[in-house]
Write a structure and sequence with these properties.
The protein is α/β, with parallel strands linked by helices. Helix content is about 40%, strand content about 20%. The strands form two sheets. Strands 1, 2, 3, 4, 5, 6, 7, 8 and 9 form a nine-stranded mixed β-sheet that branches. A seven-stranded mixed β-sheet has the order 14-13-10-11-12-15-16, with helices on both faces. Helix 10 links the parallel strand 13 and strand 14. Helix 6 crosses helix 11.
């Protein structure tokens, strides 16, 4: 049996609400692992997952995508005495030396105060065999490897701690509707809100034949990647060609992008209210493009009927790209398939549109019936991280059923 430890961070500050956050974290972890043999429980600031060796890839995928933990490690369990700890650290040190490590350091946490040594004593004694047998040298400032010993109900020893997503468990902060495009920004915006505990659904505006099927597949892939963090995600695809053609016909050229965004906000608000979302989410970053000046963002927001969240508003492109690489959306986002926004962009867009003037132009577009038609013709896809795990690593009897629940096009209601 293999044991993994997940380390809680922000959750531990939740006071009287702590239990409800912990319960949700455990529930989310179990959701990922429905198709594999694994046991999940939480105790004193640690999330424990025990599984067979065959389930390790599924568990590690879960821990890499589970919001609410700051880090995780694959741990070795040993006897609750210093001799057993020394032997286990020695075993790990020999493995690390084969991988090229030359120096080490010991860190210790003692939750069980009845243990014979305090934390400093554990750190002093745990590495004795490693030092005496000259396996690795001691370096407390910049070691090649850190061995951590945690004395709890059992003793857990590990040397390879990974970073977690941090934040809060999905489902504790309401629901948001993300305006998802094929670019770099919006998937990162969705991820950042998921990390704050928000359940996220997506809407994508497609303008066939001006945007290709490849562009739509690109967005679907981004939705799938983001769903790995959000556990489950719905992607609503709305056909927007007729709306865009009407804008091109009726709007002054320099206002076309702004009018398009206002139309999108109007449809997104309709959809958000239909699905019970509390807010809209966009990937806007202040000053990044012409439509994202303060004045133009005010115009865009005027078409919303719900709060509009912009989690990237103060980030620059390099920061956004770094996160895109981290979460796995970068390579998909840079594929050369343009979305509807890019294809209909004017050469000289308005930079600081007066709100009153923009609203008057919007009224003159006469797009209400086209917006209603586009909304009614939307298509829906469901992505399930549970199903993704089942497809790749599932072993239980329910695997086939769960696999079918991932990346499913949901038939339109008649």
């Amino acid at each position: 049996m293999v044991t993994y430890l997940g380390k809680l961070g922000e959750l531990t500050l939740k006071g009287s609400n702590l239990k409800s956050f912990e319960k949700l974290l455990v529930q989310n972890a179990k959701s990922y692992l429905l198709s594999v043999e694994a046991k999940v429980h939480l105790n004193f600031g640690r999330l424990y997952i025990e599984c067979d060796e065959s389930a390790c890839p599924a568990v590690e995928f879960t821990l890499n995508h589970l919001t609410g933990i700051t880090g995780w490690a694959k741990a070795e369990v040993c006897g609750k005495n210093i001799e057993s700890i020394q032997k286990k650290v020695l075993e790990l040190a020999e493995s690390e030396k084969k991988r090229g490590a030359q120096t080490f350091k010991i860190e210790a946490k003692r939750s069980d105060k009845s243990f014979e040594l305090d934390s400093y004593g554990i750190m002093r004694e745990a590495g004795n065999l490693v030092y005496e047998q000259k396996i690795l040298d001691v370096d407390v400032h910049s070691p090649d490897v850190i061995f951590t010993v945690e004395v709890r109900d059992k003793v857990y020893v590990y040397s390879d701690s990974k970073k977690g997503c941090r934040g809060l468990p999905v489902g504790c902060s309401g629901k948001g509707l993300l305006l998802l495009s094929g670019g770099l920004d919006s998937p990162v915006a969705g991820y950042r809100m998921i990390r704050r505990g928000m359940t996220v659904e997506c809407v994508y505006f497609h303008s066939y034949p001006y945007t290709s099927e490849e562009a739509q597949k690109k967005v679907e892939k981004l939705a799938e990647i983001v769903s790995g963090y959000g556990i489950r995600l719905h992607l609503n695809t709305i056909p927007f060609t007729q709306v865009q053609m009407q804008i091109k016909k009726k709007s002054p050229e320099n206002y076309t992008t702004l009018m398009l965004r206002m139309c999108m906000m109007k449809v997104a608000t309709m959809l958000a209210k239909r699905i019970g979302a509390d807010c809209l989410i966009t990937g806007e970053s202040l000053g990044q493009v012409a439509s994202q000046t303060v004045e133009n963002m005010a115009v865009t927001e005027s078409a919303c009927g719900l709060p509009l969240l912009r989690p990237l508003v103060g980030l620059d492109k390099e920061e956004i790209i770094a996160t895109a690489r981290e979460i796995g959306t970068y390579e998909t986002s840079i594929l050369p398939y343009e979305d509807c926004c890019v294809l209909f962009s004017p050469k000289h867009p308005v930079l600081r549109a007066p709100l009153d003037e923009a609203q008057e132009i919007f009224k003159s577009l006469e797009v209400d019936s086209l917006i209603e038609e586009a909304f009614n013709n939307r298509e829906l896809m469901r992505f399930e991280a549970t199903g993704f795990v089942a497809q790749n690593w599932g072993t239980k009897e329910n695997t086939e059923k769960l696999s079918k629940d991932h990346a499913v096009l949901i038939p339109k209601e008649k």
